[in-house]
Amino acid sequence: MPYADTYQRLIGLLDTSATPYRLIDHEPEGSTEAVSALRGHPASYAAKCIVLRVKIDRRTTRHVLAVVPGDRRVDLDAVRTLFGARYVGFSDASTAERLAQAVPGTVLPFSFDAALELVVDPEVVALPQLYFNAARLDRSVVISGADYARLTRPRIESIAGPAAP
What we know:
By secondary structure, the protein is an alpha+beta fold. 30% of the residues lie in helices and 30% in strands. Strands 5-2-3-6-9 form a five-stranded mixed beta sheet. The mean pLDDT is 95.
C-alpha cells in the first residue's frame, strides 16, 4: 500500500490527541461523489482536498492544500486574491503526491509537510461530521469539523466556489 506511513501518521495523531473518530471500510474509490455514496452521506460532508501551485511573483512559488466541501469547487480567484498571487493553478501530480504524501483520491485534509500550507473553507470546519479518505482508497475517517480545526489549526478563508455541475 503506497503511503502506508501517512495513514499510520494520521491514526497516530487521532489516537494521541484523543480525538473521537470512526473508520469506514469501503470499496476502493477516490472520486468524492462516488466515495460519498459508498459511505452513505451527502458529498457536502466530504473534504475535497486539492494541492495548488501559487505563484506570488516570478521567483516565489508556494504550495497550498485547499480544503472545501465535497460538493463545491476551489475558487482559484479567491486563492489568488488571498495570497496576492500572479497565478494559481492545480499542482502537477508528482508534486502534489510528494507534498501530500498520498496518491490522488486519497489526499488528507492535513498537511504533514511544512512546504504545503493548509487553507480551509469555513464550511468545512462547521460540519458536524467530516468524511475523508484516510490516505488510502479503501478506508475513510469521520471526525467533527471542530475537532479537525483543533487538530490542524488551518488558515480558515472563504475559498469554496459554486457547486460542481
